[in-house]
Design a protein that fits this description.
heterodimer; A: mainly alpha; Immunoglobulin-like; globular; B: Cytochrome Bc1 Complex, Chain D, domain 2; two-stranded antiparallel sheet; 13 helices; about 55% helix; iron (chain B); transmembrane (chain B); electron transfer activity (chain B)
Chain lengths: ~120, ~290
């Protein structure tokens, strides 16, 4: 997709601002276009309303519109890209009570999904 | 023959004058709008709490405030206020909720009350200048953009009248009288909780202003800062879980609203001291959001 470099450039300052160490910086900016496909593949839309994802209108979890602007993730975590990746991969480690299941999301997919979710402002 | 020409001239001159005045009028209006827009968008207005309004603005705002309160207090029926037990209960509430901002005879305002603009009024003065109905209205509804909160979700109408009964005594209290009364009252405290009645969604909607829910949530039907500290509540009536941990039904919602940290100890939504009645009213409103 042609939008990819633009998104990455836009997202870079965000990640630096969060104050990550070197390895996290290397591991962060994902590809929002791939993330969009991954979201469709994992079926996140069966539980979430997600702007830009066809048929994503689930009512089990909260809507993910403007999720980039949310102060807390899942109501418990400060909303940062690293925390978002963690949440997507192992929600039960963050809040043992949560109804969001662990979907065995790979690190790469979680990074791309995070990149896409951070375009939702 | 002689006066025909001047008449035509006069008509033409008048026409020209009207056109000119219209142009000037329109130009002035445009300049005013542009000026106001510049003032607003360039941030020329200083919103600092230490920057007092200019004298004309202060007078204008105060007049608007006085007229607004008088107008709205007109139809309020005032119960008898001279029962000493009533004033005594009012004093208890006053010491708990009001003295930090307003002070009392011989008692200074707290730090919060000192740094505000407008400064919280001296209520001994207010009791002399306003009617009980006006004071009741002000306490119940609060005053927008001043820092005076609305108390209707903390106190019932009967309790607000008790506060009014106390305030009407205030001008007569010397600092020593006040201290003596406080010492007397410090012994016991009583407060009966009102019986729970059928949930009322409209009162629930208003209650969400009272508990400042809009400081953290976007809520359909409520005007507010539109922030996303917590999830937007649009569609909450149809959602399967509350806060991702609790099955969404009426009783669970009432429980969540009263004790979020009991439901999920990790949650960033604080316990807000929501009464059972208000929680039921709010839950009734939220269940309608689809």
């Amino acid at each position: 997709m042609t939008t990819k470099p633009a998104f990455s450039v836009l997202l870079m300052p965000l990640f630096f601002a969060v104050g990550c160490n070197e390895s996290e910086v290397m591991s962060l900016p994902g590809d929002p276009a791939k993330g969009k496909m991954a979201i469709a593949a994992y079926g996140c839309g069966s539980c979430h309303a997600i702007p830009g994802i066809l048929g994503a209108n689930g009512r089990t979890g909260p809507p993910l519109e403007r999720i980039a602007e949310r102060t807390y993730l899942a109501g418990v975590l400060p909303n940062t890209p690293e925390q978002m990746m963690r949440w997507i991969r192992i929600p039960e480690a963050i809040d043992p009570l949560t109804a969001m299941p662990n979907m065995d999301v790979s690190v790469n997919d979680a990074r791309d999904i995070t990149a896409y979710l951070y375009t939702l402002k | 023959m002689n006066d025909r020409v001047p008449k035509r001239l006069v008509a033409r001159a008048r026409h020209r004058l009207v056109v000119r005045l219209t142009i000037i009028g329109v130009a002035v209006a445009i300049a005013m709008v542009a000026g106001a827009a510049t003032f607003v968008f360039w941030g020329a207005y200083n919103v600092s709490a230490l920057q007092q309004h200019t004298e004309p603005v202060y007078t204008l705002l105060n007049t608007a405030l006085n007229r607004s309160i008088r107008q709205r207090a007109e139809d309020i029926e005032v119960p008898p206020l001279d029962d000493p037990a009533m004033a005594e209960q009012g004093l208890r509430y006053y010491r708990e909720k009001c003295v930090q901002c307003h002070g009392a005879p011989g008692i200074s305002r707290d730090d919060v009350g000192k740094g505000m603009t407008p400064v919280p009024s001296n209520l001994a003065h207010t009791a002399r200048s306003r009617s009980p109905a006006e004071i009741f209205w002000t306490i119940k509804h609060g005053i927008k953009m001043t820092g005076m909160p609305s108390w209707q979700f903390i106190f019932t109408d009967a309790e607000i009248w008790e506060i009014v009964a106390f305030l009407m005594q205030m001008p007569r209290l010397s600092p020593a009288d006040y201290q003596a009364w406080v010492a007397e009252v410090k012994k016991a405290s009583t407060s009966a909780t009102p019986p729970v009645s059928t949930p009322d969604p409209e009162r629930g909607r208003l209650a969400m202003y009272g508990y400042a829910c809009i400081a953290c949530h976007r809520i359909p039907g409520l005007v507010g800062p539109q922030v996303d500290v917590g999830p937007p509540l649009e569609g909450i009536g149809e959602r399967r879980y509350i806060a991702g941990v609790l099955t969404n039904n009426f009783d669970n919602m009432v429980h969540w609203l009263q004790h979020p940290t009991e439901v999920d100890p990790l949650t960033a939504m604080p316990d807000l001291g929501v009464t059972e009645q208000d929680a039921m009213n709010i839950a009734a409103y939220l269940s309608l959001l689809d």
